[in-house]
Amino acid sequence: MDIAVFSAKPYDREYLNAANAAHRHRLQYFDVPLDIETAALAAGHGAVCIFVNDLADSPVLQALKQGGTKLVALRCTGFNNVDLKAADSLGIKVVRVVDYSPNSVAEHAVALLMAINRKIHRAYNRTRDFNFSLDGLMGFDLCGKTVAVIGTGKIGRVFGKIMVGFGCNVIGYDKFPSPEFEALGARYALPGEIGVSADIISLHCPLTPETYHVIDADTLSRAKPGALLINTSRGALIDTEAVIAALRSGQLGGLAIDVYEQEAELFFRDLSGTIIADDILQRLITFPNVIVTGHQAFLTREAVTTICATTLQSVTEFETGKPLSNQISAS
Ligand code: NAI
Fold first, then answer.
1. pTM above 0.70?
2. Domain 102-292 is of which CATH architecture?
3. Is residue 263 in contact with ligand 1, taking CB distance under 6 Å?
4. What is the pLDDT of residue 331?
5. Could you tell me which residues come within 8 angstroms of residue 168 by beta carbon, excluding any fewer than 6 positions away?
């Protein structure tokens, strides 16, 4: 099948080409993201393959439909960037990669937590300058601390399991609690208790209208003073302005994020030679107790291999008229 691959990076090409040996689809790579300006590039391609910051809203889907696209294959888990209702009404099928490696994201969340707590980012910069002073590098033992996992799905559970291994008291919140989370030695708690008792809050729920800005001025004001906040899920779970105010007042002890609400304009490209117009991100990056990574939590060999294999398998299922194992729809 002809597949237009948008937002294609060198690692996408390498791993998709390798996975395609088992399928022999015709892959055409575009560096640009999918949006209303670029949708015409997909004309003549039955399938479009997109990533987290490509836009498949109703006008884009209509443009894709006009060009003959019948399948949108997300090479990621989250699908908040696709208008599923519009896709359904246009008869465009949508597939995603449900389960590739929850370990990749959970382990990155742990890396961010360890780095922000033990100030690894500051130590790295200092020792490169032969500055071996320890002033300002004090952290705390994770053992015995309370860690709140918001969203106890696949990634949240792996993160919770690792935190149990560190000797933490792991509590969680989920709209749909699962016994598997409790089997880790963790327990569910109400948001009020999480606010009062959590030393660390890690976000692992999807972005939905319900979870938009779930961390805002109100929730931050009820958090334990000095708590650390980790977000590897989606940027808009956090009201960044409110977080900046909480960092400034000391109410929040540190922030480590792999995702950012306005990341679509910034992430996955080298902007080191340009002036960034995003004042909020500029401000965030000036804080010594903030770490930002550019949506790299998924980026392990194991995860990307599975993502590419699953994506192309979904296209093959569609092409051969088989049931779509990884289909998502509005209904
Ligand atoms: P999952 O579907 O297994 O788990 C999500 C959990 O959130 C579920 O248990 C669900 O019940 C819960 N949830 C839904 N609505 C909620 C609400 N209103 N409040 C509390 N919990 C709620 O998904 P998985 O695989 O664990 O992924 C979680 C998120 O991680 C994805 O939605 C995606 O946004 C993000 N992600 C980030 C990546 C990165 O590279 N930074 C890569 C992959 C996923």
1. yes
2. 3-Layer(aba) Sandwich (3.40)
3. no
4. 81
5. 142, 143, 144, 145, 146, 147, 200
